[in-house]
Amino acid sequence: MSPSMSQNGNINPTNNAISLKQLATLVAAELAELGDNTDPVARKKVLQAISQHVSTACLDDGFVARHLSARAEGQSVREVLHEDSELGFCICGHVYADAAHGNAHDHGPSWAIYGQAEGETVMSDWKVENTKTDNGQSVKLVKKVDTYKMMRGDVHVYDIGDIHSPSRDLPVKLIRVEGENLDHIERSKIKQIDD
Ligand SMILES: [Fe+2]
């Protein structure tokens, strides 16, 4: 199957299949268009465009089989599939064999796009109600404002500062695109005040 070329020269997926290279090329093209524009509305538009490509990958059995295979015992759930040396974004595969319940968190200075490739995630969104200082550090006090289910093909954009908490009772496979490698970022200090 040969990829098609769009008018601006980007490689587009065909027949609902997408390769890692195609996905990386599409993400890079969108981010290059955004450039150093820090306007949140412009960024959100670009991230929404990227999320459509992430959804395509989540729904592509071949992509999931190639890049989201079951982890061996002791192997990290997280694999960085692609890290862009120029733009800094990462495409990651996360494969959880067991239940996983995360606390409310943000991604520091980065955005992230979560795509559900297998299984089900119950995601909650939180908003900052207040802040306090604890041992000289600023702590965000957050309240839950929304809870929603993510099924295969569902994708959600978490912009810079968006606070969320995932909950998974059964095995899941996820594709995550991150503005920068989240292994290296510092997250905000957050305390849940109504869970
Ligand atoms: Fe997150």
Summarize the structure.
This protein has 195 residues and is of the alpha+beta class.
Structure description:
By secondary structure, the chain is of the alpha+beta class. The chain has one domain: Jelly Rolls (Sandwich). 22% of the residues lie in helices and 38% in strands. The chain has helices at residues 20-34, 40-59, 61-67; strands at 4-5, 11-12, 78-83, 90-96, 100-101, 112-118, 121-134, 137-150, 155-158, 163-168, 172-178, 189-192. A five-stranded antiparallel beta sheet has the order 3-4-11-6-9, with helices on one face. A hairpin with a 6-residue loop joins strand 3 (78-83) and strand 4 (90-96). Helix 1 (20-34) packs antiparallel against helix 2 (40-59). The model is unreliable at 1-10 (pLDDT under 50).
Features:
single chain; alpha+beta; Jelly Rolls; five-stranded mixed β-sheet; 3 helices; 12 strands; disordered N terminus; binds fe (ii) ion
What oligomeric state best describes the polypeptide chains here? single chain
- Give the SSE order as H and E letters: EEHHHEEEEEEEEEE
How would you state the average pLDDT, rounded? 92
- CATH third-tier fold name: Jelly Rolls
Bound molecules: fe (ii) ion
CATH architecture: Sandwich
Which regions are unreliable across 5 or more consecutive residues at pLDDT < 50?
1-10
CATH class: Mainly Beta
> Could you give the count of β-strands?
12
Total helical elements:
3
CATH superfamily: Jelly Rolls
